[in-house]
Design brief:
The complex is a heterodimer of chains A (379) and B (423). Chain A contains 1 helix and 25 strands. Chain A has 379 residues and is mainly beta. Chain A has a single domain, classed as TolB, C-terminal domain (Neuraminidase, 6 Propeller). In chain A, strand 4 and strand 5 form a beta hairpin. The termini of chain A are far apart. Chain B is 10% helix and 48% strand. The longest helix of chain B has 14 residues. Classes of the chains: A mainly beta (379), B mainly beta (423). Chains A and B meet through strand 1 and strand 22 of A and helix 1, strand 9 and strand 11 of B. Strand 22 of chain A pairs antiparallel with strand 9 of chain B.
């Protein structure tokens, strides 16, 4: 090979490499996010605070418009965790926030009462399903098993689901909604979790109980009537869960459904994201699944969602970052600071929870529970 | 309270009440020895105008103080850098009364107008706020040099403040306020404005500006090949006050104020200014801590006022370290060690020399005062903190005369405990 052809080959290789790098960089969803806009306070009229769940309404129904952002609160005004009872609706067009539901603190059908968690979904039929992870004193010492509450689009409670497979529905739900039928995936993080003062003598941390599950709930939705459970299947179990004085619970939290019926689960205590294959159809548990990504940029992953480019966005609990992960390769592509409040150490520690992609697929909604606000991250 | 807060919340109002009580005393040194109790009840009522009546980005704030107990620093210590940030004259008073509105795309500008206490936003070191000594809050230099000690706890002043974020990492904080928080600069400012309701708007103006750099900024990216950043905040600022300032040494005829032939009326100077810098930097984060909040942070703050003739203090600094979760699994506890330094200006020192000369008797020349503080904030319950505290003061009052002994006030060991209760 002559010197000239060798140089040409080198230039081509460098150019190809640069193009490949550019393409990879361009595929990082978070790199296109530059603005972080405060939309509204999430404090309810009754003083409820500590926003957890964030979802986007898929349809217009009752007092809710398609594209509205629904947020629930985990604490009541006394700031005790596991006592919040309100769901708010933020309308992006009017920029107004209204109350969708204020549930009673105590429900006979819901063991322990009401403390609304990150587990919330709205179906195409207009029904809202929200998890309750209740407590009397703000810690797991007095927690109940809670349940799943079914509301109509005007915020009226129409059904409560509580049984042996439901114990503190905790993380954000993944949903496959076909209209007359739907499938919910819910993480259950409360089985036998004691109070935060029950410590593991080896670590000094609250004792870890490896009984958390992911429950698949198949629903039928008769026309004009509330959804009914047709089957419940534990498709993953054995995740670690423990009490935490600041966060109430630490356990499997985020759920996101990807291609090929793969369910992704953020295993917060193990600091990893795992996958559960055949999540829609599997008849039994896949245990704790197979690791997709672990450590690195992940810092106790919480809520998960699937970005429009097919990557996972995972909220960090112990800093103010959201992490982008390619689920196919497990590569952690990058993280962005979406809460840099230096009142916490590290910035944003403990502030973030729910996340939801905006309807135009360009950005995402999230909440900051230190200042009780709904945020929007956009290009 | 259980019924009041939900009622207020319906109108977009939130009420917070905190009681700070402490017992502090000096076991060595000082003009006198002994322990004193003092306390502060602080109530803040805020309205979110978005929740109250749909005006997005508006906040209305009114706060009041009930100050009780005695003042150890004045009665026993004779220090410049007073031992507790809540020490003040006993009173029930209005503190702040302001309205803040956010503007521009992404709310990059907000404007606050009304009665404001500048120690809440300017010259603030987040880490220094742990400590008990006053000078970790509103610093020594403006406390000594600005009229009435400046618009800071328990005083405030009318004015307007702008906060602009030109980029996600940079913030410009600037404001113009009445030049003094009291209507009369002679006498005890807290007695002159005893209820906080005098709202003086006469005389000069205090202009203050601060450039802040924050890292990491919201929106910044981190990649797998990088280590997580250790967060930091850096601030550069200045203030200029157009009030008249009394000379520290000479009278209006050019004679020393200590001269028996002096008119006793200090020479007047127009205006005074200072520059300052503040650093808060995380220096260590425990890689083995699951909660990631076991960290060590460094802070430092320095301020200088070049015009020595009109300033009692021309340099003041403080610095230290804070250690979050010093005991594993005590995630809400913080240990701190810090120091403070205040230098008496050459003009004020010359005045001491003049006094010694003209009286012909022993009169010590003041130089500087330093102190160290060791403190531990222990969270007893989510609503109650206990904070044992140790301070050692070198050269109290910068070497001031103890009228009881005829010698300089001796170095002091100050011990005590503070309790914060949230209602």
């Amino acid at each position: 090979m002559t010197d000239i052809s060798s140089k040409k080959s080198s230039i081509l290789l460098v150019a190809l490499f640069a193009l490949t790098v550019d393409a990879a960089q361009a595929q990082i969803f978070l790199k296109n996010i530059h603005r972080h806009v405060t939309l509204a306070s999430t404090v309810a009229d009754n003083g409820d605070l500590n926003p957890y769940a964030v979802i986007v309404a898929p349809v217009s129904a009752g007092r809710i418009q398609k594209g509205d952002v629904l947020v629930d609160n985990f604490n009541k005004i006394s700031n005790l965790q596991g006592t919040g009872t309100t769901i708010l609706d933020y309308n992006p067009a009017t920029k107004r926030t209204t109350l969708v539901a204020e549930l009673p603190q105590h429900l006979a059908q819901c063991p322990g009462g009401v403390g609304l968690s990150t587990a919330m979904a709205m179906l195409k039929s207009g029904w809202i399903i929200v998890g309750s992870t209740p407590s009397a004193d703000g810690t797991t010492r007095t927690k109940g098993a809670g349940g799943l509450l079914v509301l109509d689009a005007n915020g009226h409670l129409v059904a409560t689901w509580a049984n042996a497979k439901i114990n503190d529905p905790w993380g954000n739900m993944a949903t496959v909604d076909n209209g007359s039928t739907a499938v919910l995936f819910v993480s259950m993080a409360g089985f036998d979790v004691p109070g935060p003062d029950v410590r593991d003598p080896k670590t000094g941390n609250p004792v870890i109980i490896r009984k958390a599950t992911v429950l698949r709930i198949d629903l039928s939705i008769p026309a004009g009537r509330p959804p009914e459970i047709t089957s419940e299947t534990v498709i993953a179990d054995g995740f670690g869960q423990r009490a935490d004085r600041d966060a109430f619970l630490i356990g499997p939290t985020g759920l996101a459904i990807g291609p090929n019926n793969t369910l992704y689960v953020s295993d917060a205590l193990a600091n990893q994201i795992v996958m559960i294959p055949d999540a829609m159809t599997r008849p039994g548990s896949a245990g704790t699944g197979r690791t997709v990504a672990s450590g690195g940029l992940l810092h106790r992953p919480l809520a998960l969602t699937m970005a429009p480019n097919g990557h996972l966005l995972s909220i960090n609990a112990t800093n103010g970052e959201v992490v982008e992960v390619d689920p196919a390769s497990g590569t952690q592509l990058g993280a962005q600071w979406i809460d840099a409040d230096q009142a916490q150490s590290p910035p944003g520690n403990g502030d973030l929870f729910g996340i939801a992609i905006t309807p135009d697929d360009k950005g995402f909604y999230y909440v900051e529970d230190d200042v009780n606000t709904l945020m929007k991250a956009i290009p | 309270m259980a019924g009041l807060r939900p009622l207020l919340s319906k109108f977009g109002l939130s009420l917070s009440i905190q009681e700070t009580s402490e017992v502090l005393g000096n076991v060595t040194g000082g003009a006198n020895k002994g322990f004193e109790y003092d306390g502060l009840t602080q109530a803040v009522l805020q309205m979110d105008t978005g929740r109250a009546f749909g005006l997005h980005g508006g906040t209305f704030d009114i706060s009041g103080l009930q100050i009780h107990g005695r003042n150890l620093s004045a009665e026993n210590l004779d220090t410049l850098q007073t031992a507790s940030g809540i020490e003040a004259d006993r009173s029930t008073r209005l503190w702040e009364l302001w309205y803040q509105q956010k503007f521009l795309k992404d709310e990059r500008l907000d404007v606050k107008i009304g009665q404001q206490s500048l120690d809440q936003e300017f010259m603030v070191s987040q880490n220094a706020l742990l400590f008990v000594n006053t000078m970790f809050g509103w610093p020594m230099l403006p406390s000594a040099d600005l009229p009435g000690g400046g618009p800071a706890y328990p005083l405030s002043a009318l004015g307007v403040r702008f906060r602009w974020r030109p980029t996600d990492s940079l913030t410009v904080l600037a404001g113009v306020f009445n030049g003094t928080p009291v209507s009369d600069s002679n006498g005890d400012p807290q007695m002159i404005n005893a209820s906080g309701l005098s709202f003086p708007l006469h005389g000069g103006a205090l202009a203050i500006g601060e450039l802040q750099y924050t890292y990491p900024a919201i929106g910044s990216m981190v990649y797998s090949s990088q280590s997580q950043p250790l967060s930091g905040v850096y601030k550069l600022g200045f203030w200029y006050d157009t009030e008249d300032f009394a000379d520290q040494e000479v009278d209006n005829t050019g004679l020393s104020l200590a001269n028996p032939e002096s008119t006793g009326i200090p020479r007047n100077h127009h205006g005074d200014y200072a520059i300052y810098a503040v650093v808060d930097q995380m220096v260590w984060s425990d890689p083995n801590d699951e909660d990631a909040d076991r960290t060590v942070n460094f802070f430092a703050r320095a301020m200088g006022a070049p015009e020595e003739d009109r300033n009692l203090i021309d340099i003041s600094t403080n610095a230290g370290f804070t250690f979050h979760e010093p005991i594993p699994h005590r995630g809400d506890d913080t240990l701190g060690i810090g120091m403070g330094y205040a230098k008496v200006s050459d003009s004020a020192a010359d005045s001491d020399k003049d006094t010694a000369f003209f009286t012909g008797s022993y009169f010590p020349v003041r130089g500087s005062e330093e102190f160290i503080e060791l403190t531990y904030q222990y969270q007893l319950t989510p609503w109650c903190e206990l904070q044992p505290d140790f301070q050692y003061v070198f050269d109290p009052g910068a070497g001031i005369l103890n009228p009881n002994s005829g010698h300089r006030v001796k170095n002091e060991v100050v011990l005590g405990v503070r309790m914060n209760v949230q209602f």
